[in-house]
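Incident review: delayed structure delivery

Summary: a single-chain prediction request sat in the queue longer than the usual turnaround. Root cause was a stuck worker, restarted by the on-call engineer. No data loss occurred. The affected request and its eventual output are reproduced below so the record is complete for anyone auditing the incident later.

Affected input:
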Amino acid sequence: MCCSQLLQPDIPIPHLVIPGGLRAEDQRSVRVFIYRARGRIGGRAFVNAMPDSTRQIHNRDAGIRMKRRYRMNHTVTILLLFSLHARAADLGKSLTFHADFDGSTDARYAAGDKRIYTAPAWREQAAAKPGLDHPDLELAADKGRFGGALRFSRKNEKAVFYQANKNVTFDPKNWTGTISFWLSLDPNQDLAPGFCDPIQITDKAYNNDAIWVDFTKDDRPRHFRLGVFGDLKSWNPKSLEGDTPDFRNRLVVNQKPPFARGKWTHVAITHEGLGGGKGTAHLYLDGRLQGAAGPVAETFSWDISAAAIRLGVNYIGLFDDLAVFSRALTGDEVKKLYGLRKGVASLKLPAPSR
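Output delivered after worker restart:
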């Protein structure tokens, strides 16, 4: 007699050992062979038909043992569907914005406005117009981490941005989300003098209701930092300017970041509970946690019409696969994001907006 049974995802199975290095995907198919020997029921499992993106050997022994007893004399095959990480299945569902720069600066998916905007300077952001009106900024076909990329060939001092409204799920009492993108540059050789912010998300400035990462101006090698700042008057009541000790103590700093010319580095920022009094943020590079900022106690307030996803402030280099999610991804999910062979487009996304 032979039979099969479907089990729901996430049902706990005694003594299940996942093969080392197996990456979290939405679901996996595992064939479990149950056999009878010396009056007892045992079992062995094999991971079948694994997608190439996992780089696993098909039919790898997963080392499963089943405690359940069966009164059967023949092999019983159980087809088990399970989730290696319950929340990973929702990765695509939580996407609010994705720009892949493959032949267009329009976002591949956007909950809000999908168009890129440019203005002569940040102080003139209100006068920005849709489109990429910039002599030193272009789409570089086949130069990206995945397909095309956005190339900044000279120090960018113009305003280049996507509107944050709806593309970023801002909540003044519980701002939570994830920002993901790829950079390719040698910061010590390619960047011009001065600070450089590959990304800023704010309606005002870097020190006022903002999340950003930057390369420092004087350090060798240049440090890579994460900054998270709420209302300026709340965290800096004396309105002190510059790189003060209070400012620096809030940052996550990597003194020897892994950026290099001809190499792509993945950057992910997760943040949770900002504006609620105990907010936190985490910086990841190539799927590895670099540090955490927080607790971030101050309030956050935006004029949503002025809020922007600012790209390449003083930046020179390649930029690719920008994505924003509505929740703080877990460390395992960030690793999954980093490992996607075709980038965010590999996820089960909502219908494209273009």
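Verification: Helices lie at 187-190, 232-235, 245-248, 331-339.
Action items: add queue-age alerting; document worker restart procedure.
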